[in-house]
Amino acid sequence: MANLTQIIVSAPGKLMLLGEHAVVYNRPSLVTAVDQRLTLKAETLENSVFELNAKDAGVTNYSKPLSELGKGDIPKGAKFVERAMYNFFARHPQSNRGSINNIDSRLRGNDIIGIRITTKSDFSPLFGFGSSSASTVCTLKALSELFNAKLSCRQIFELSFQTVLDVQGTGSGFDVAAATYGGTLYYSKAGSKTIKPLNLKHLPLIIGYSGIKADTVTLVKQVAEKAKKYPNVIENIYSQIGYLVDLAKKALLKEDYQTLGELMDLNQGLLVSLGVEGKKLADMIYAAREAGAYGAKLSGAGIGDCMIAIAPANKVSGVKKAITKAGGKVVNVKVNAPGVRIEK
Ligand code: PMV
């Protein structure tokens, strides 16, 4: 029997510091967790149904029999939670009504009790802070607790990453790593994957939202097309981005923000070469630099979502004003926030 009937967990949003796009091709990246969180409540139900309320993702009163889990027309805002649940039950035969190992027969045979999930986010899904990855990680953490599966951070990360790949077919997993582990991470999916927490005391990052939605999957595909046409050039760009990440890691640990800023500018130049700059982001980035930032770059897939800047303390307010004047919205969040955790 499951011991718990309800649990509340939360996971942070994320921001890519350096390394986007190249990280998909096994180069390292630097990512940080933001202190705005997605909260998820999971409750067990007597009937074998899956219910989801995720207003921030545009899903209200979504309900289906567990036997239909992962099947049929799934609304966009339900895909990650539903797939995470399917993957959990497929791999972890804990349930309160027996333990048939085949997931489909277990779902058909009412072998698993029903689950109602409700999510609520501190941040707008428009920012690109990673509501899909945070809700995936929260779902797996909550199910692990409800069914006493004792998943480790690493297992939650691996199953969440698999879920993201199942749903969107592509991705480096950096967002899932940030939601799971929190803090600021040196992350690479190469080989057995590197997830190295960096011990930072603080990181005075300035974040500007462009008001434009970035379509990550489409942009990753666009860059892949470019790589098909110019394989050597693009592979070299990925490698250069990887070198910048290694240098930026050292600068971050030394709190050498001037060097970090220079490296951010260099990374931005390479992202421009990949074709993901975007006019609005470029305006905000130039505005930040002209107002005295050490450096600025886009964060994430590009074209839209957010840009980040780092500046000397006496220039921060001027940089924020310049970003606003360029048409951006300054998002006041702290970074280096804790990873997935139980709230109640
Ligand atoms: O758009 P975001 O914030 O999800 O970042 C995408 C970063 C990419 O490197 C382009 C894709 C990935 O999965 O790493």
UniProtKB/TrEMBL annotation:
Pathway named in the protein's UniProt entry: Isoprenoid biosynthesis; isopentenyl diphosphate biosynthesis via mevalonate pathway; isopentenyl diphosphate from (R)-mevalonate: step 1/3
InterPro entries: GHMP_kinase_C_dom (IPR013750), GHMP_kinase_C_sf (IPR036554), GHMP_kinase_N_dom (IPR006204), Mev_gal_kin (IPR006205), Ribosomal_Su5_D2-typ_SF (IPR020568), Ribsml_uS5_D2-typ_fold_subgr (IPR014721)
Pfam families named in the record: GHMP_kinases_C, GHMP_kinases_N
SUPFAM superfamilies hit by this protein: GHMP Kinase, C-terminal domain, Ribosomal protein S5 domain 2-like
Record domain GHMP kinase C-terminal: where: 249-327
PANTHER family, alphabetized: MEVALONATE KINASE
Protein name: Mevalonate kinase
